[in-house]
Amino acid sequence: MNPYIPHTPADVRAMLDAMGLPDVDALFADIPAEVRRRHRPLGLPGRDELSVHRYLAGLADRSSGQELIPFLGGGLYDHFVPAVVREVLSRSEFYTAYTPYQPEVSQGTLTWMFEYQTMICELTGMEVANASMYDGATALAEAALMAHRTVGGKVVLVPRSLNPGVRQVLATYAWGADLRLGDVPYGEDGRLALAEVPEGTCALIVQQPNAFGVIEDLTGLKDALGQAFLIVYANPIALAVIEPPGAFGADVVVGEGQVLGNPLSFGGPLLGLFATRREHLRRMPGRVSGQTVDAAGKVGYVMAFQTREQHIRRERATSNICTNSALCALAATVYLSALGPDGLRRVALLSMERAHALADRIAALPGFRLAFSGPFFHEFAVQCKRPATAVAALRRAGIAVLPPQFLAPTGIKEAFGVAVTEKRTWEELDRFVEALRGGGRK
Amino acid sequence: MTTIYDRGAPGRQAAALPSLARPEQEILAYIPAGLRRRERPRLPEVSQPELVRHYTHLSRLNYGVDTGFYPLGSCTMKHNPKLHEDLARLPAFAGLHPLLPEEEVQGALALLWELGEYLKGIAGMPGITLQPAAGAHGELTGMLLIKRYLEDRGELGTRTKILLPDSAHGTNPASAAMVGFQVVAVPSDGRGMVDMAALRTALGKDVAGIMLTVPNTLGIFEEDILEITRLAHEAGGLCYFDGANLNAYIGRARPGDMGADIFHFNLHKTFSTPHGGGGPGAGPVAVSEALVPYLPVPEIVREGDRFRLRWDKPKSIGRVHPYFGNFLVMVKALAYILTLGDEGFREVSAGAVLAANYLRVRLRGTYKVPYDRLCKHEFVLSGEGLPVRTLDIAKRLIDYGFHPPTIYFPLIVKEALMIEPTETEPKEVLDAFCEALVGIAGEARERPELLQRAPHNAPVRRLDEARAVREPVLRLLFDSPQA
Asked: What pLDDT, in 10s, does the model give residues B83-98?
């Protein structure tokens, strides 16, 4: 018997009798006969739990990449996740609930959403945050759409140093909404070089730190933009040590929240951060938890400003988003609570310390140089004559880096990317340098 | 309600981290002085026991499928198999970086390819993308596909309208609008189905497509579905099917056989993956032959026993996800498909439709059923005629230990209660739910104030939703300096 369906033959009979129906097939008489006739099964037998487990574990084992030491980032980073995060997430009262439409039985979800919004505002220096988007890329795309809705104008300025995968998603959304992406170049230091703000610009996007790991200077950008939005795509861990975009007048801060307590997950599910200024609240996409009181005057939380959302506003909604990344946002909430301000800062500093130590040692190797002179956080681009040879040498040493083809769309030549988190040990750093010394030159 | 910020004390921390090798200031010096963070973010400072107790406490204020019956219409709140949680935690799934070279991630690509093949078979359609992260994201992807298709045919300027039955989910019009389409509502008729005369009038050379939900949000199967899609195609439009309600017919019928050009799955509905308190889900999209060239890149291609990523698709809409979609959700969906097999799919739709009709028949003597006919996996009651509002009925259900159904949707039914029991509830639970609703109808007549003040038996009393908008407090404000 199917372990997930409790109906016994006697139950089925009793229910059919209550309706006066002869058999289960009678329940499907309203599907046109022609449609039912055309149906073809998959030819798939059901399986027992052990066999499904074996099969999928077998598939998992076919990925040799699981054995490699990940010195690769490119937008997702291999940070340590304390066990307490997974333990909290395994509470099925959290993960088997849905959107908190009925707040009286969803105070758990609504309270952590409120906590999460507070933490994201604190990290980004913004006034309001929603309770999550799918991922950083779609959060960025939605921010661009919001900028267009708010200030008009169809040009979104995008630095060439934006993460190429994120840029591809942005380009798809922008094409859908008839927006145009304008290029902003970068200088020798790897930082964006904004020369002018063309007529019709609704937003400038800045990645902090950018795809090369370089820390951007946001000073003066909002002044140059005027009404147009300054949208910052930020790494929330970096914001533990870098001045938050809110301090530079950013209108929207988005980012990839995977780093906050979520595993790499082969790229999904992820967590889209989205924070903005209070004046833009009614144009913000996504769910928001708001504080209120119950009939007895006790503090509680509800979904607020639902009139922005698709289930009320339909084609005039601020976005079509409904299901989001709630459980990943809960992971972020627990992660940030577990680390606290000191722990988060420690993670950022540990990552930086090791990244800079490795960068210094690589740059000292003959034939290798850092691609950019600008300050960087925990990721950097390395140039050499034959990056493919270097990447292959690292692979032989059991190390994975960001391949040159990933960074190619940014215009950088002959470079591979290296990211270092607090999980990388000093021994692994030695191994990295030895691998390059041994076989990566020329 | 206590938040995590109300707990702990300065200096407490719930996770121990390695030490720095050098003084902090030396490391901070890598950041130019003007760009260094000046003020510490106000984050909680709690020890591990405090942290665990706080979130365990919050979890107990929540109602999930594991707590009890959750008949939230159109959301398919079925049981979430526990095997799936184990599988998604396997390090070779959870710890895998998506930017590793394709030869290093063959297992993950094999899994995605296999899931895609099964989903194509279930849809009866030849193309698939797994990238969309949710149903609405799948809808958006579908609208982008239509736009590219029209662009390719030189019809983008002329075909500007998307037709939508007035019973459609709110995401449908919102998704169409994000791609610049004009939304035109098509009314339902007395049967609760698309009004065919109105459809014929609406169809024309300016129509890009029609978005349908099958069965529709009243839980009623569009009996004219073949005629609807034939007419739409004849007019040069494409047919989008919202797959939120696939649980009604999985294993028995396929959208491809009904004339669908685009169909989105909700893996977090039909395929049993957890709803996560609002996500993550996954919304793969299947397409007909005509739309295959426009699907997002990269495409996962099988060559013998190897899998590779195909990027050279010049007509593609591009990417809608920065990597491959919600992979861990897909791990769970594949496990579900393998566990069930064809026979299991038929049991799912049979059980879901049986339970819904059973509840409908048992409740129709007590509540108004505006479209009282054979339904599929869900049906809609109306609270009209009772001296209370539907909201009051919903809140009272909480006192009886049930999660309320979807309320005030679909919009075409006044005081709607949209009930979807799914196949995973025992008959005893269905019976108890009926008895509760019958009891509540009696209470509504005798003691309406009991309902109007409900819930009485929940972690909080009824919450003032208007106040949260009138006096918005959307984050802790730290009025008093942190202790």
From this structure: 999 999 999 999 999 9
Residue B248 DSSP one-character state: G
* Arch. (CATH architecture) of B85-339: 3-Layer(aba) Sandwich (3.40)
- Domain definitions of chain B by residue range: 4-60, 85-339, 345-468
Which chain B residues are within 8 Å of A343, Cβ to Cβ? 13, 15, 17
> What integer best gives the mean pLDDT of chain B?
97
Interchain CB distance below 8 Å, B174 and A315: yes
pLDDT in tens, A80-118: 999 999 999 999 999 999 999 999 999 999 999 999 999
Q: Give me the amino acid identity at B209.
A: G
Which of A266, A271, A274 would you mutate first to test chain B, the one with the most B CBs within 10 A? A266
Percent of chain B with pLDDT over 70: 99
Where chain A has pLDDT below 70, the residues are: 1, 440-442
The secondary structure element, H or E, covering residue A432 is helix A426-439
d(CA A118, CA A116): 5
Low-confidence residues in chain B, pLDDT < 70: 479-483
Residues of B in contact with A107 (CB under 8 A): 1, 58, 61-62, 459-460
End-to-end CA distance of chain B: 18
Q: Do A128 and B143 touch (CB under 8 A)?
A: no
Domains and CATH numbers, chain A: 65-79+340-439 (3.90.1150.10), 83-334 (3.40.640.10)
Query: Helix-strand-coil percent breakdown of chain B, rounded to 5?
Result: 40, 10, 50
pLDDT tens per residue across span B467-478: 999 999 999 988
Domain B345-468 has CATH 3.30.70.240: no
CA geometry: angle A82, A84, A88, nearest 5 deg: 135
∠ at Cα B201 (B244, B254), nearest 5°? 30
